[in-house]
Amino acid sequence: MLRWIAQDLGNAEDVVKKIEVPLPEPQENEARIKVLATVIGLPDKMMLDGNYLAFNIKPISFGQEMVGIVDKAGPGFPFSEGDRIIGGARFDIGLGGLAEYCISPGEGAILAPDSLADEEAAGFLGSFHVAYTGLVNRAKLQSGEVLLVLGGAGRTGASAIQLGKALGATVIATARKQKQEEFCYSQGADFVFNPEKVSFEDAIADFTQGRGVNVIYDTVGGNVYKEAVQNITYGGRVVLIGFASGSWGEPDPMHISWKGYSVMGALHTVRTDEERKRSVDQLNAMLEKKVIHPLPTLVYDFDYAVDALASLKYRQSGLVIVRGY
What we know:
Elements lengths: L1 E5 L5 H4 E5 L9 E11 L1 H8 L10 E2 L3 E9 L10 E5 L12 E5 L4 E2 L6 H4 L2 H15 L7 E5 L4 H12 L3 E5 L3 H9 L4 E3 L6 H9 L4 E6 L3 H7 L3 E9 L12 H7 L2 E4 L7 H16 L8 E4 L4 H7 L7 E5 L2
Parallel strand pairs: 9-10, 9-12, 10-11, 12-13, 13-14, 15-16
Antiparallel strand pairs: 1-2, 1-4, 3-5, 3-7, 3-16, 5-6, 6-8
C-alpha cells in the first residue's frame, strides 16, 4: 500500500515522500480502514515545522481524521466490515489517514452521515463533534448567552460559530486578517474583531454593553487565552480546544476563584456512549434541517498530497481534504 510520510522537518515540497509499506493490522478495538478522504490541517503543518505539542515522532505521518470503509475490524471494534465511518487515524504511530489504508481506534469512530459526501464527511468529526462536545456536553451553552470563539476562521472555530448560532447564542469571534473576518461572518458570527487592532476589553465591552461573555471556546491558547478570560462573566465557562498559537492557555487558579468561572477540556474521543449517541442524532438532524452546513473545502487528489500540505502555509479558513487513492 502507499503512504505519504516525511523523514525530516521542513517544507512539504522538500521532505514529503510517497512510499510503499505493508498493510497495517488492527489490534483490539481498532480497524483497518480503506481511506476515501482525509483531513490535512494545522497539526500537519506544525509537525513539519517541529512545533506540534502533542507528538514529536519520525517518520511524520499525516492525516489525523478520515472517512473510509472498514476493511478489517479487530476484536471489539464497534462497526462492521463494509461500513463507511468517520474516525481518527493513528498518525501518532505512523498510521495516519494520508495513505491507502490507515488504522482507526474505536473510541472516536462514528458512522458517516449519508447526507455528507466523502469530502464533507472527512472533517465532520474533528470539527462539529468537537464543537458539540465542548459547547453542549461540557459548557452547556444556553440560548441567549454570549459565546466567544477564539480563532473563528479555523475549522473547529468555524464549527463552533455555526453550532453556537444553532443553539441560540450570540457569537463573537476573533480573526487576524480581513478575509478571516469575512469568513467568520459567513459562518454566522454576530461580531468579529482583530485582537491585534483592538483590545478584548474594548471590543467585548462595546458589543456586550459591559456584560462580558458567558462561554469562551479557545482554539488558540497563549496570550489570547489570558486576555480573553478577563472578560468572562461570573459563572462563565472556558473550553480548551487547541493551541494554534503554539502553546496552551494557562488557567490561573487565583483568577478563576476571584471571577467564579470554570475551565474544562473537550475531546470527541473523551465522552460517554450516551453523549456520543446524542451528538450523532442531534448533529445529523441539524444537517438535515440545514441549521449547520459543511465547511468550505479545498480538495486535492491523493497524488497531489504534497501540494495539499504546502497549501497550509497560505490557507486561512475552511478545510483541506485529500481524496483517497
